[in-house]
Amino acid sequence: MKHLFLLPILLILFTFTSCKDDEEAEPIVETALDKELKGEWANYETISVYIDGNDQVAHTDTSRVEVRHTFNKPNMKILHSISGSEATVKYALPDTSATRYIVITDSENRQDIFEITTLTETEMVWEKILRYASYKSGDSYITSRRGEFTYKFRKL
After folding, report:
1. What CATH number corresponds to the domain at position 141?
2. Could you tell me the residue range of the domain that residue 43 belongs to?
3. Among candidates 91, 66, 85, which has minimal Cα distance to 153?
4. Cβ atoms within 10 Å, residue 49
5. Which of 29, 77, 118, 145 is least surrounded by CB atoms within 10 angstroms?
């Protein structure tokens, strides 16, 4: 009789216990923008402009170090040409009709958002504006009112 009492408990446990997750991963849907990005791009120039409190350019910097970006939704592999360092991050393209943005998320869930201002078959430009961006001047860092960053890419 005691064993019959255990039978409903075992049936309940068996019903709610599973060895395998029954949910399947959502299929990756590629939008037209995803298809345009897919492949390898070289970030060949980055222009940084720092604006002071009077809305005047306080400092500019241009970097021409090539950084490769390989897009394969949802991943983007980044390879730095000089250091050889490599990272894989996630990217997303939020659905907005007016402006195109790309959201990059690293392995620690930190996000960075860029506006895609130009995208052709061979060229792409991202822009980002940061409030209170810092730049190095001599041995010290100076904080500007805002930093305007432009990233230029070419398709490889």
Report:
1. 2.40.128.540
2. 31-155
3. 66
4. 19
5. 29
